[in-house]
Design a protein that fits this description.
Number of domains: 2
Distance between the termini: 43 Å
Structural class: alpha+beta
Order of helices and strands: HHHHHEEEEEEHHHH
Number of strands: 6
Strand order of the largest sheet: 1-2-3-4-5-6
Radius of gyration: 29 Å
Shape: elongated
Largest sheet: 6 strands, antiparallel
Number of helices: 9
Strand content: 15-25%
Length: 373
């Protein structure tokens, strides 16, 4: 790496660290004033408050990292342009690509680090943060507990279970309805019982009925007081923990989606959330590609502050389009991949287009061809 490229990279990294620290600090201060009343009104110890915000940092970093890239790129390039350092570098034979490649490379590394943090650091930190807030402060002992009410389960063996209440300590269910289907998902048998309990590695049902169906409808109904049925589902299949989305790693989220899909549940929203968690870190690269031409062009016309304003406006516009895409994905108007990755690809193409028209004297490319007055 040449000396000039190392100089640009060092300047960008330093600016990014300062900018990211500033954004995270602002977020923490605002969040503190929103929550401190609840901590102090419930007499929570100061150590819990400090630990809560310590574990909250990875969550905030996930959202602030791309925004910090935008600001760091704009500040770095606009100051270089203001001091005529970009002109000097180009006079030495270094093109715009050579000058800005360290920034794009650093943005890609930041995106990968945020993605890794989202997989290995943020889930564990979120679990500890939520435990402090919900269990220690709000004293909600059911947080993170096994789901016990209104359970629907479609197992991989084809049985559909509906349970009003489940006691995981006793492996006991109340008001149970089971629908047994064939390979064409046609209901062939139905079990209704007031109670079911796991006994000797089998489900023992009490006070219920057993119905069989044929092509003409109901074939036979049998009533029983106590009866065992050869069902393959075990208590472990029902012990699903209530986990908040931020507590799941990407791999855990993917496995959860796959499992629930086999149960017949519509997982469109979860697919959108998964694509969001993967695509969001790469906004860093998109914003860097946008900020490079905007900073260099706008700094010719209005200086560093003007360049910063232009980049902030573009950043807000991109955030709006990205949020709109995610909303359309949740509504089903767009597919999960398109809703999360579409805005990235669209604005990345815009960034490359702006780079290609960088030597124009106009701020915006569509002004090319107009005569200057």
């Amino acid at each position: 790496m040449s000396l000039l490229k190392r100089y640009v990279l060092t300047k960008f990294i330093w600016t990014y660290l300062v900018t990211a620290l500033g954004l995270i600090s602002i977020f923490l201060v605002i969040d503190f004033f929103e929550r401190f009343d609840e901590f102090f009104s419930r007499n929570a110890p100061t150590s819990d408050l400090l630990l809560f915000y310590w574990y909250r940092i990875p969550h905030i970093t996930f959202y602030m990292a791309p925004q910090a890239v935008l600001l760091a790129t704009a500040i770095t390039l606009s100051t270089l342009a203001r001091d005529n350092e970009v002109t000097a570098m180009r006079a030495c034979g270094i093109g715009i690509t050579g000058i800005t490649l360290p920034i794009i490379g650093a943005s890609a590394v930041i995106a990968l680090l945020v993605l890794a943090c989202n997989e290995y650091v943020r889930p564990q930190a979120s679990k500890k943060m939520n435990h402090i807030f919900y269990v220690k402060v709000r004293q909600k002992m059911q947080y993170g507990a096994v789901q016990t009410d209104q359970i629907w389960l479609k197992s991989k063996y084809g049985a559909i279970w509906n349970v009003d209440r489940y006691d995981p300590e006793q492996n006991q269910m109340f008001q149970v309805r089971i629908f047994l289907t064939d390979e064409h998902n046609v209901i062939k048998k139905r079990i209704d019982a007031k109670e079911a309990k796991w006994v000797e590695n089998k489900w023992k049902f009490k006070n219920g009925s057993y119905r069989t169906f044929n092509e003409g409808g109901l074939h036979k109904t049998e009533y029983f007081n106590d009866r065992f049925f050869p069902l393959r589902e075990m208590p472990e299949d029902f012990e699903k923990i209530r986990i908040k989305p931020g507590e799941l790693s990407l791999s855990e989220m993917y496995q959860s989606i796959q499992t629930k899909t086999t149960e017949g549940k519509d997982m469109t929203d979860k697919w959108v959330d998964l694509h969001f968690k993967i695509s969001y870190p790469f906004i860093s690269i998109v914003l860097a590609l946008l900020a490079i031409p905007l900073s260099l062009k706008s700094s010719r016309h209005g200086g560093a502050l003007f360049a910063l304003g232009i980049n902030l406006a573009m950043g807000f516009f991109f955030s709006f389009i990205y949020a709109l895409g995610i909303s359309l994905g949740h509504s089903g108007a767009f597919g999960p991949a398109l809703s999360a990755w579409g805005p990235n690809l669209l604005f990345m193409a815009l960034g490359f287009y702006l780079m290609l028209t960088l030597d124009s004297e106009h701020i915006l490319p569509w002004a090319i061809g107009k005569k200057r007055i």
